[in-house]
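User: Is it possible to get a 3D structure for a protein together with its bound compound? The compound here is iron/sulfur cluster. I've pasted both below.
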Amino acid sequence: MSGTFVGMPAFPRAAHEAVNNQTLRGNLRHATHTIRAKRANAVAEVSDWAELREAGKRIKDHTLRHLDRYLVQLEESVVAAGGTVHWAADADEANEIVTQLVKMTGESEVVKVKSMATQEIGLNEALEAAGIRAYETDLAELIVQLGKDRPSHILVPAIHRNRGEIRDIFEREMGEWGRPAPEGLTDTPAELAEAARLHLREKFLRAKVGVSGANFMVADTGTLVVVESEGNGRMCLTLPETLISVVGIEKIVPTWQDLEVFLQTLPRSSTAERMNPYTSTWTGTTDEDGPQNFHLVLLDNGRSDTLADEVGRQALRCIRCSACLNVCPVYERAGGHAYGSVYPGPIGAILSPQLRGTASEIDASLPYASSLCGACYEVCPVAIDIPEVLVHLRERVVQGGPVVREGNKVVLKPAKGHAAERAAMRAARWAFAHPGVLRTGQRAASRTRRLHPRTLPGPGKAWSGTRDLPAVPAEPFRDWWQRTNGGTSETGGSK
Amino acid sequence: MRVALFLTCVNDTLYPDTGRAVVKLLTRLGVDVDFPMSQTCCGQAHYNTGYRHEAEPLARHFSDVFRDYEAIVTPSGSCGAMVRELYPRMGERARAEGRGEGLATALAPVVPKTYELTEFLVDVLGVTDVGAYYPHTVTYHPTCHGLRGLGLGDRPRRLLQAVKGLELKELPGADECCGFGGTFALKNSDVSAAMGADKVRNAESTGAEVLCAADNSCLMHIGGTMGRLESDMRPVHIAEILASTEEEPAA
Ligand code: SF4
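Assistant: Yes, that's possible. Here is the predicted structure of the complex:
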């Protein structure tokens, strides 16, 4: 994945700052709560939502089960329509392919449609290293790029910024990249949008190469689909002479008809709209209309490995609607950057450690970045049981076990730093398997209860730093039950 | 009807009052309650922290202890969800790992007859008015595993609304997690504490005296946060409210 995220600290440390940053928390709280309520309304309007959700899940599961077949069919369809297909096993390969394709056009700049896949592989940085400048044209992506920042949300990458901050970024940076911001720019949404429009228009009209991702790829026709709100993506898809689309292999659906389901569930889940404003589809090349050269780069980058895992593979159903981010209480407080990946929030917490493995500090900590409250599962339009996968990945972190890495079966060792926890869990299991031991422990705790500190040493400090401990009662329930013969020989409590 | 009380290890050790309240309430409603002394822990903390294999013997033990009862009642949404939702899954995983049907077969008899307390009252006993008296203002927090795991819906609120003297206040952001999440509270204590503080602030905005929930683990976290924030509110388990009567009122 992107080099920009290497060496991230573990989630709890990365979240620490965000939790204490009042501006950030305010921005996030406002944005997520607004969209949360709107989504709930948009979903409630659809009487067959449960069926649509089930249909989406089934289509994706079916496609994933026969991915090899559908990928071959897709390749044939794209080639038949005049496109070229390239296969990229990992980020480096994909970046190399795109860089070479751009170089062959003789150009040194490209315009980009917002794309998670190209962020995942760090394409902009790779192009820059080859002397090619990539311009993001999605408004929020533009704000992130101009601010020399990282995206913090799947759909609204600049969700962590407020209007005042955006105005300052535009004023400071636009001139660097092209047309400067108008004089006396204020922070009203209309003025900010107009500034971005003028700045971007120049780029659209000049660009010879466009780079995009895709929300879907239809296997039987070789058609790619992008859904968006602004229309900037459509400009990038239709104006340049060469179009290069970098797409994860899991984005396939078998037929056009399957789109029907997702074109209903995606906009309602993501922007709470009944239908998204722009749906662009492109199939190979067509004479004198749209790009004259079309290249599709099919990206694996850990997806086949993820597919090999029975529990974890459901993460590949994701249609990147971001509903799970918007309802997640942890995302709301920690912010998107703490997840150390272009995929933040609940989906990021299960996708990144699968695509990248659990070896790094940040990846080993992501499965724990959840209270398992289940809100993400409830809203997910393709019914990904995110809590189930989180627990599954926790097991991988603490216990190790068999996984597929780069196509090979390997057995992972447990991640470092869990030895004490593992010992405690085993001891607790042993005590719980012997009720008498539990009872002795309870009695000891009761007898020494006046001596118990209100703050704890060691790992317990994390608890008692912000919360009071409950007092240990004089008598555990089971002793009361036995003493009073199930409460029959005594009324009331026994304090 | 003879039911087994599965009190949970947390209640047994730290919140015996809740256990006594459940016994009092169910006895009042004509239920014959037993507390199998050999019960321990459902294994939820193990399972959710990634120690599924450590949780398996605890699940088997649970089944050994409880399999012969007509019904198993627990005053904990999360431990109830562990048995009902996750035990079947543990059986499936063991099967998928080529360890046969043993675990699934062992767990099958206890899964469908395990009920969270409010579910048992409303669905099995068919009562919403349990004859309780509790003259306080109360706001209700539906805990995540009760709400989304077990789908308790409005059962707890219906029970509370029927309590004499009780005034129920709507909790803003009720469906949002309080931030406990078992070991999450330790592993991500900053985020957990921020979630807990927001929960307490929302509860305080109702002006209620008492925050009530059907799970003492969440109440421990919320109550601990209230203590630290010097809030005047008190956390109370729903069983203690429902057990309270005019003759023997709870505090
Ligand atoms: S996991 Fe589900 S809710 Fe989250 S972004 Fe993907 S599709 Fe949307």
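The first strand of chain B starts at residue 2 and ends at 5. The first helix of chain B runs from residue 9 to 14.
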